């Protein structure tokens, strides 16, 4: 990671170019050449976002660095969901559920599995702090169950929906739990979320490179937000082409939400894998589980508030297949976290669960 006072030129140019493309393509039907251009700018913005997130993280230290990226991505993701839901239509009712669940599965299985894979290949055993990771996983499991499982079994309102009272409770509980976790992660038990060495001892901050200056950090933070806006905006710009491709292939409509969730989570995926290569698996897990937690803890309250003016039903409850995958993810995640050490096998198990989710989404 570059921490010099001067940022690489491409990390400044990429978000700017992506925003310009977004401004010219927003709300328009794009021909394939412009779709390709938007996709290229999307990829460049993702790489720039990862770079700027690492600059900020190096300045503020862990776990604040991973929290910055997780919250920034999720805020933009929520804005995208609300924008797409405001258009209405039959597909909008389940959009929040599909996007949030996809984010949980990608984070808890894809990002976790990839991080463990990278670290295990490098060091044979990936080492992390079981106390902090276990706390994060427990919070994710609780949030997912309250928001995505219970609506399938409640009876006040027909269908997998919450009543108004239930939705308000789920929103308050989600926000409260997320806020409590952030307080524990950053203040009361910050040491639980710091990277550890192979012998389990805490790792100190990097000393091979001086932290970036305050000015560079502020510039990177601004460019990070610009890049994330561009990522989500360009993803929305190319989504009609994705929808057309999905429809032409005869795939379920929920596949569109998965594709967009994959695009939106690319910055965190790349940042997590790079942290794992530097033997900072705890940082990778902070990113993965923090993303899943923020996706639920910020989306559900936002959707509850937006339901005041949004029309149509709000489907939140998962189907039987997805509930099985969620339960298996929690069980496997628990068994991975408890020892505080993981091998290639645990990485393979998590990646297999992600593969099962993707296959069943394409062929339910």
TrEMBL record:
Record domain Sodium/calcium exchanger membrane region: where: 34-186, 220-361
Residues that span the membrane, as ranges: 7-26, 32-52, 64-88, 100-121, 133-153, 165-184, 218-238, 244-266, 287-310, 316-337, 344-363
Subcellular location as annotated: Membrane
Main localization category: membrane
Membrane topology according to the record: Multi-pass membrane protein
Gene Ontology CC terms, in alphabetical order: plasma membrane
Keywords carried by this UniProt record: Membrane, Transmembrane, Transmembrane helix
InterPro entries, per database record: Alkaline_pH_Ca-Antiporter (IPR052946), NaCa_Exmemb (IPR004837)
One Pfam family recorded for the sequence: Na_Ca_ex
A GO term, aspect molecular function: potassium:proton antiporter activity
PANTHER family membership: SODIUM-POTASSIUM/PROTON ANTIPORTER CHAA, SODIUM-POTASSIUM_PROTON ANTIPORTER CHAA
Descriptive protein name: Ionic transporter y4hA
Species the sequence originates in: Solihabitans fulvus
């Amino acid at each position: 990671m570059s921490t010099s006072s001067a940022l690489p030129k491409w990390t400044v140019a990429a978000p700017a170019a992506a925003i310009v493309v977004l401004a010219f393509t927003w709300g328009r039907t794009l021909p394939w050449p412009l779709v390709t251009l938007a996709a290229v700018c999307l990829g460049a913005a993702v790489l720039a976002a990862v770079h700027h997130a690492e600059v900020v993280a190096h300045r503020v230290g862990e776990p604040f660095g991973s929290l910055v990226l997780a919250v920034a991505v999720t805020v933009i993701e929520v804005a995208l969901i609300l924008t797409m839901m405001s258009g209405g239509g039959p597909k909008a009712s389940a959009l929040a559920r599909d996007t949030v669940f996809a984010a949980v599965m990608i984070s808890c299985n894809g990002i976790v599995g990839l991080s463990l894979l990278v670290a295990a290949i490098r060091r044979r055993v990936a080492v992390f702090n079981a106390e902090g990771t276990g706390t994060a996983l427990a919070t994710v499991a609780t949030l997912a169950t309250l928001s995505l499982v219970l609506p399938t079994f409640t009876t006040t309102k027909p269908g997998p929906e919450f009543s108004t009272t239930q939705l308000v409770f789920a929103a308050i509980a989600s926000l409260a739990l997320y806020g409590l976790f952030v307080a524990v992660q950053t203040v009361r038990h910050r040491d639980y979320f710091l990277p550890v060495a192979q012998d389990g001892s805490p790792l100190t901050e990097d000393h091979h490179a001086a932290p970036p200056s305050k000015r560079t950090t502020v510039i990177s933070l601004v460019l990070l937000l610009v890049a994330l806006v561009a990522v989500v905006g360009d993803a929305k710009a190319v989504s009609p082409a994705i929808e057309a491709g999905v429809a032409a292939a005869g795939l379920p409509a929920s596949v569109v939400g998965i594709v967009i969730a994959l695009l939106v989570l690319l910055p965190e995926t790349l940042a997590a894998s790079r942290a794992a290569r530097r033997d900072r698996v705890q940082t990778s897990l902070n990113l993965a589980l923090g993303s899943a937690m923020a996706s639920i803890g910020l989306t559900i309250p936002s959707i509850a508030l937006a339901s005041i003016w949004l029309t149509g039903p709000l489907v939140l409850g998962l189907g039987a297949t997805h509930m099985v995958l969620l339960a298996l993810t929690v069980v496997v995640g628990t068994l991975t976290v408890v020892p505080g050490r993981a091998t290639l096998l645990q990485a393979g198990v998590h990646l297999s669960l992600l593969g099962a989710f993707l296959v069943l989404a394409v062929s339910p």
